[in-house]
C-alpha cells in the first residue's frame, strides 16, 4: 500500500490495521475509551506546534490528529454506528447550514438578526440529533456491540448548564459554565467585586491551610481558581492562554538558570535556594533587558 494525498487511503490504512486476523495487534485491541488519552495528547501537540511556529511539526501533528478522527470512525463503522463518510457529510452540512449568508440566499446577517437566526439553526440541529438517536434505538439489525451507544433518552439534562461538556479541561470548563450562567444575568458586571471575592477566597484558603483538613484546602483552592477564571473573563483574557504564557516564561528562565549554572561547572541540584534565587534574578534581568 502506497501513501496518498487522498483521504480515502488513510481510511483504508486504518481499516487494515483494525483487521482482526491480519491487522496490528495493538490497534485491534483498542476501543473508544482507550484512545481518548491519545486524542487529548495529539490536540495539545497541535497547540504546541502552533505556539512554537513550527510548520513541519504542525503538519505532522495535524496528521496525527486527523488519524484520531479516522480511528474513531473506523471503530464506529465496525459496530454499525456510522462511517467516516457520515462524519464528513455531517460537518459539511453543519457548516453550510450555519452560514446561510455565505452558502444560501440569506443576506449578510446584521448584529440584530444574528442571535435569532443562530438559535433557529441550533434548534434544527438539536432536532436532527434527537431523530438520529431515535433511529439508532429502533434499528432492529444493530450489532450487540452497539448496545452501549443506544441511549434510552436524549443526551444531557434540560438545565442551562447541562449543555456544557463536563470533560473539558478545568479552566475552559469554568469559563464556559460562567458564560452560560451570564446569559441569564447571573454574573458580575465589573471587576471590583470579583477582586474582593478573590481576596475573600484567599483568606478562606489561608484558614483551611492552617488545618489538616485536605478536603477543605482543595475546596477553597478550587474557589480561588474559579474566581480567577471569572476575573480573566471579565477582562476578556483567556485564562488558559494566560497561564500557558506564564509557564513558557518560567521554562525559559529555568533553562537560563541551568545554562548559567553549567557555565560555572555546577548543577542546580547542588545549589542552595539562595544561589538558585540569584540565578533566577539574573535570568529575569536578562529577559527584561532583551525585551527592552
From TrEMBL:
<dbReference type="InterPro" id="IPR011551">
    <property type="entry name" value="NTP_PyrPHydrolase_MazG"/>
</dbReference>
<dbReference type="GO" id="GO:0006203">
    <property type="term" value="P:dGTP catabolic process"/>
</dbReference>
<keyword id="KW-0378">Hydrolase</keyword>
<dbReference type="GO" id="GO:0046052">
    <property type="term" value="P:UTP catabolic process"/>
</dbReference>
<dbReference type="GO" id="GO:0046047">
    <property type="term" value="P:TTP catabolic process"/>
</dbReference>
<dbReference type="InterPro" id="IPR004518">
    <property type="entry name" value="MazG-like_dom"/>
</dbReference>
<feature type="domain" description="NTP pyrophosphohydrolase MazG-like">
    <location>
        <begin position="194"/>
        <end position="253"/>
    </location>
</feature>
<dbReference type="GO" id="GO:0046081">
    <property type="term" value="P:dUTP catabolic process"/>
</dbReference>
<feature type="domain" description="NTP pyrophosphohydrolase MazG-like">
    <location>
        <begin position="30"/>
        <end position="103"/>
    </location>
</feature>
<dbReference type="GO" id="GO:0046076">
    <property type="term" value="P:dTTP catabolic process"/>
</dbReference>
<dbReference type="GO" id="GO:0047693">
    <property type="term" value="F:ATP diphosphatase activity"/>
</dbReference>
<comment type="similarity">
    <text>Belongs to the nucleoside triphosphate pyrophosphohydrolase family.</text>
</comment>
<dbReference type="InterPro" id="IPR048015">
    <property type="entry name" value="NTP-PPase_MazG-like_N"/>
</dbReference>
<feature type="region of interest" description="Disordered">
    <location>
        <begin position="273"/>
        <end position="292"/>
    </location>
</feature>
<dbReference type="GO" id="GO:0006950">
    <property type="term" value="P:response to stress"/>
</dbReference>
<dbReference type="InterPro" id="IPR048011">
    <property type="entry name" value="NTP-PPase_MazG-like_C"/>
</dbReference>
<feature type="region of interest" description="Disordered">
    <location>
        <begin position="114"/>
        <end position="153"/>
    </location>
</feature>
<dbReference type="Pfam" id="PF03819">
    <property type="entry name" value="MazG"/>
</dbReference>
<dbReference type="GO" id="GO:0046061">
    <property type="term" value="P:dATP catabolic process"/>
</dbReference>
<feature type="compositionally biased region" description="Basic and acidic residues">
    <location>
        <begin position="117"/>
        <end position="138"/>
    </location>
</feature>
<protein>
    <recommendedName>
        <fullName>Nucleoside triphosphate pyrophosphohydrolase</fullName>
        <ecNumber>3.6.1.8</ecNumber>
    </recommendedName>
</protein>
Amino acid at each position: 500500500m502506497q501513501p496518498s494525498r487522498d483521504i480515502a487511503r488513510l481510511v483504508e490504512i486504518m481499516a487494515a490495521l483494525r483487521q482482526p486476523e491480519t491487522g496490528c495487534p495493538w490497534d485491534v485491541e483498542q476501543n473508544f475509551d482507550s484512545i481518548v488519552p491519545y486524542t487529548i495528547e495529539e490536540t495539545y501537540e497541535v497547540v504546541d506546534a502552533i505556539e512554537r511556529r513550527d510548520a513541519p511539526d504542525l503538519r505532522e501533528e495535524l496528521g496525527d490528529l486527523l488519524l484520531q478522527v479516522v480511528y474513531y470512525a473506523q471503530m464506529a463503522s465496525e459496530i454499525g454506528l456510522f462511517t467516516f463518510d457520515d462524519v464528513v457529510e455531517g460537518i459539511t452540512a453543519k457548516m453550510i447550514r450555519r452560514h446561510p449568508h455565505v452558502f444560501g440566499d440569506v443576506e449578510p446577517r446584521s448584529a440584530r438578526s444574528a442571535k435569532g437566526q443562530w438559535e433557529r439553526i441550533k434548534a434544527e440541529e438539536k432536532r436532527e440529533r434527537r431523530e438520529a438517536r431515535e433511529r439508532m434505538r429502533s434499528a432492529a439489525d444493530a450489532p450487540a456491540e452497539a448496545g452501549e451507544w443506544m441511549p434510552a433518552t436524549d443526551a444531557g439534562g434540560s438545565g442551562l448548564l447541562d449543555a456544557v461538556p463536563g470533560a473539558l479541561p478545568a479552566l475552559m470548563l469554568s469559563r464556559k459554565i460562567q458564560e452560560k450562567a451570564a446569559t441569564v444575568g447571573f454574573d458580575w458586571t465589573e471587576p471590583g467585586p470579583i477582586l474582593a471575592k478573590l481576596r475573600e477566597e484567599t483568606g478562606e484558603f489561608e484558614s483551611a491551610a492552617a488545618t489538616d483538613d485536605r478536603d477543605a484546602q482543595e475546596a477553597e483552592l478550587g474557589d480561588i481558581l474559579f474566581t480567577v477564571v471569572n476575573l480573566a473573563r471579565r477582562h476578556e483574557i483567556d485564562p488558559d492562554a494566560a497561564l500557558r504564557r506564564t509557564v513558557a516564561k518560567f521554562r525559559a528562565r529555568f533553562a537560563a538558570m541551568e545554562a548559567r549554572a553549567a557555565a560555572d561547572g555546577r548543577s542546580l541540584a547542588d545549589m542552595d535556594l539562595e544561589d538558585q534565587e540569584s540565578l533566577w534574578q539574573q535570568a529575569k534581568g536578562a529577559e527584561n533587558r532583551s525585551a527592552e
